[in-house]
Amino acid sequence: MNQDDLAVKVFKALGHPVRFKIMKFLCDGPKCVCKLNEKFEYSQANLSQHLRILKDAGLVKSEKVGLEMHYGLYSNDVKNIIEDVGKYVLNYINGIKETESL
Fewer beta carbons under 10 A from the terminal one: N or C of the chain? Predict the structure, then answer.
């Protein structure tokens, strides 16, 4: 897989509303899968599929802690992507509002 293919895989993974919400939730730090299940009321199987896609895209990593599986962002670079998208969207919305008020 080349660099462009992996970049597309990252965008596809982030392009799903559930996965984007999971990523935002993980920006606060690693969480056990039980906390993810509490926050996102999806079946265990559904949540596992989303986490696998995020992991395959290199966005999250997992670690077994005792009997629990914990998921966290792969690196702070991933957190920066999520935060930068939020900033971009806010600036974009504010720009549209300014344009509409003219």
Answer: C
